[in-house]
Design brief:
Layout: E1 4-9, H1 20-28, E2 36-43, E3 58-63, H2 72-84, E4 91-95, H3 103-108, E5 112-117, H4 129-145, E6 148-151, H5 154-157, H6 162-166, E7 168-170, H7 185-189, E8 198-201, H8 210-219, E9 226-229, H9 238-245, E10 251-253, H10 259-268, E11 271-274, H11 283-290, E12 295-298, E13 313-314, H12 319-331, H13 346-360
Parallel strand pairs: 1-2, 1-4, 2-3, 4-5, 5-6, 6-7, 8-9, 8-11, 9-10, 11-12, 12-13
């Protein structure tokens, strides 16, 4: 049987590339059946030594890009479209609405297009007025012109018209079964005390609310140490601004952390905090839950994918509210919890995604 050809565009790449969308693709795409051969387009500036990993059914095409915020996705996606003009596939899957502005062009080129909608990027504070207007236009074009749409969040999907609902499906992000790493060598290398710290994981960008979290940690004696695992892609000075907020000397920045090192951070944490002002579908929250960690979250829709007790939600962007919520969780004992993670199994998610491709083809 002839194998089906799939192209993935709109991401920075994987493996070894930081980002929720990148993590999504790294877990999803290698799980497709042998019926598919996948071409994944990557951005050269973001590739690392880990990016040399190979997969049986995946071909990587690494194209030039920039790190200029607001331009890199447009430039790289345009190059992907030019390459696809001479390398035909059965389905193009565009990830997120920014690159989705090229959906009409791909349709004119004769491709069947699937849009995976991860988040409403125009809600992120890092974008200026013109960028937000362009993202809203991109959303309109991509939702209107895509053959099929995958929403990782059913809450986001519910906002749109019947026309969008008829050609869309909610398929969430997933979580792998965890193998906890009981070691402490990574913690020791950063001066982190096992079991006695708050943990937060993610890219260092304003919408993640790490500034609010650091201020909240400063406000309460209940927090002895805060660990933030992540790095900044576009603004190298942002981490310095965050460090300047750490008046209590409680915060440890570990940089982009993955593999065994990240597993050690999750396993030995006392409490996980999601301080985001905006999220599409927070995979890091599922990761924390897979380690049975007690969690505290900003009260945003995406943080309700698995509901917590009402007292464990804080007002977004409010360090006083977050400090009080953290104090409440610590006072309650921060006990390990078994969460209902069955709907977020990657095998089920991969099968649902592949079935959507099959119906389109």
């Amino acid at each position: 049987m002839k194998r089906k050809r799939l192209a993935i565009i709109g991401i920075r790449g994987f493996p070894g590339v930081q980002g929720g969308v990148e993590s999504h693709c790294q877990q999803l795409i290698p799980g497709f059946s042998d019926d598919y051969i996948c071409t994944v387009y990557r951005r050269k500036p973001y590739l690392t030594a880990l990016s040399q990993t190979t997969y049986p059914n995946i071909r990587f095409i690494d194209l030039p890009s920039t790190r200029i915020k607001g331009f890199e996705a447009v430039w790289h996606t345009m190059l992907c479209c030019m390459h696809l003009l001479f390398h035909r596939v059965d389905v193009v899957n565009i990830h997120n609405i920014g690159p989705g502005m090229f959906t009409p062009l791909l349709r004119l080129m004769g491709f069947k297009v699937v849009l995976t909608y991860h988040s409403a990027n125009y809600e992120h504070n890092k974008w200026g007025t013109m960028s937000k207007l362009l993202l809203r236009l991109s959303e309109k074009l991509s939702l209107g012109c895509a053959n099929r749409i995958i929403f990782v969040s059913p809450l986001q999907r519910a906002k749109y018209s019947d026309k969008v609902l008829k050609k869309s499906q909610a398929i969430p992000n997933g979580i792998n079964r965890t193998t906890p790493d009981h070691g402490t060598e990574f913690l020791e290398s950063h001066g982190i005390t096992p079991g006695d710290y708050l943990l937060a994981v993610g890219r260092l960008t304003p919408e993640k609310g790490f500034d609010t979290l650091i201020r909240a940690a400063n406000r309460t004696k209940a927090v002895k140490q805060l660990v933030i695992a992540g790095s900044s892609d576009h603004d190298p000075d942002y981490i310095n601004r965050l460090k300047a907020l750490d008046s209590g000397g409680k915060t440890v920045f570990t940089g982009y952390t993955t593999g065994r090192d990240l597993s050690q951070l999750y396993f030995h944490a006392g409490l996980y905090v999601l301080s985001s002002r905006n999220e599409g579908f927070p995979m890091v929250l599922l990761e924390a839950m897979s380690y049975r960690l007690p969690v505290v979250c900003s009260d945003i829709p995406a943080a309700h994918i698995i509901p917590l007790k009402p007292e464990y939600y804080a007002k977004p962007g409010d360090d006083t509210s977050l400090a009080m919520t953290i104090e409440k969780a610590i006072a309650d004992g921060c006990e390990k919890t078994d969460y209902p993670l069955e709907p977020y199994d990657w095998k089920r998610i991969t099968a649902d995604t592949e079935n959507l491709y099959n119906r389109l083809i």
